[in-house]
Design a protein that fits this description.
It contains 12 helices and 10 strands. By secondary structure, it is an alpha+beta fold. Strands 3-2-1-5-8 form a 5-stranded mixed beta sheet. The chain is elongated.
């Protein structure tokens, strides 16, 4: 990482940073996080160069103005030069100054061009991860291994000082391997950004964007949705755990075993008891649904209606299944059919129909969900 512009820019940034909170200073110091991938190193160097150029220009212009104000102030009875425009400086400065500005712009553009080329490099990757943004969570799919992870905000009582920075299921990636990211969204615009390892890229419903990285250093890296995606925008952080390649292979093998076990459990044909579904459903509801409908089922009207005492939760089970599995057109209710398996959906729907004094007594089974898909 190049630090040739760090000191002058840090000196300039210090006064403004002193106005910010101590927590921000502790996390970001005086600059972006340390870049640990080829792309982010290039972006960081370009940022530092641009900041240094802007700092130099600001200093020179300030000196010029201060000198002019002091030298030619009215209290000295200075008489304006009415023939200034006919002198050498008055004649050629109109061409000289734009030429200097253009030269600076071209210098920056030359470095930026190579950075943009690197960002758009399409070299084949060792690993492809589909990143899907939703209100308000991230879903990661390892395309080669058919493994899916849903990542949501870790509650404050568990996260402690890292609240709003940590998640329950971080994205796990290997170091020294090329990783390709495919970005999309299920509802509104999101933007996946982890400054240390990858550039910001918009996640657009119905569209695929692409970025890549090679993480060169093990560690935990944090980011945030960089698009104002709604009332829960601040509550969908990103956490990436970068581990050694062999350790990643072991982790992936374990995830495949967990997936197979879950699939077998969901397809076992077991008739689940109401209390079993309620226990499982409460955990899944709090993880996937409470951001919109609140842990107590009160919702955030009018966008996210309450479930406590609602016509959906107390009405016909088939209608409830349809809304959860397929979503509700024209509303903020997303389709969960492709995000959760039959058992998980059955547990959530059972919980919604029996929590918060709804007490319908309905125990929705995985077979019911499968039939409703």
């Amino acid at each position: 990482m190049s630090n040739r512009f760090l000191k002058p820019c840090t000196a300039f940034a210090l006064p403004s940073l002193l106005l910010t909170s101590g927590a921000v200073l502790a996390e970001y110091k005086f600059n972006f996080p340390e870049p640990v991938s080829p792309v982010t190193k290039e972006v960081f160097d370009l940022h530092m160069m641009t900041s240094a150029v802007a700092l130099i220009i600001m200093v020179l212009v300030t000196i010029f103005f201060v000198y002019s104000i002091y030298k030619f102030r009215k209290s000295k009875n200075y008489e304006p030069d009415q023939e200034f425009h006919k002198g050498w400086f008055g004649t050629w400065s109109w061409a000289l100054v734009p030429a200097i500005v253009l030269g600076i712009d071209l210098t920056i553009a030359g470095s930026a061009s190579s950075t943009f080329d690197l960002i758009e490099d399409k070299t084949p990757a060792d690993l492809t991860v589909k990143v899907t943004g939703s209100q308000w969570k991230w879903t990661y799919e390892y395309m080669e291994d058919d493994v899916k992870i849903v990542s949501t905000l870790l509650p404050k009582e568990e996260a402690g000082e890292l609240y709003l920075r940590t998640v329950d299921n971080p994205l796990v990636l290997p170091t020294d391997r090329r990783v390709r990211f495919l970005h999309t969204a299920t509802d509104v615009l999101h933007a996946w950004w982890v400054p240390a390892i990858a550039v910001k890229k918009d996640s657009i419903p119905g569209y695929i964007n692409e970025t890549w990285t090679i993480i060169e250093k093990e560690g935990n890296y944090h980011g945030q949705c960089a698009e104002n995606c709604g009332t829960g925008h601040a509550f969908m952080p990103i956490q990436v755990n970068a581990i050694a390649g062999e350790e990643f292979d072991t982790w992936m093998s374990k995830q495949k075993e967990i997936k197979l076990a879950k699939m077998a459990e969901a397809a076992s044909g077991k008739v689940w008891a109401l209390d079993e579904l309620m226990t499982k459903g409460e955990e899944l509801y709090n993880k996937n649904c409470s951001a919109c409908h609140k842990p107590d089922g009160s919702g955030i009207p009018p966008v996210f209606p309450p479930l406590k005492g609602s016509a959906i939760a107390l009405g016909d089970v088939s209608k409830h299944l349809e809304v959860v599995i397929k979503g509700a057109s024209g509303t903020a209710m997303a389709a969960w059919g492709n995000q959760l398996d039959d058992l998980e959906l059955a547990a959530i729907i059972t919980y919604e129909r029996n929590a918060w004094e709804n007490n319908t007594g309905d125990a929705v089974q995985p077979s019911d969900v499968k039939a409703a898909r």
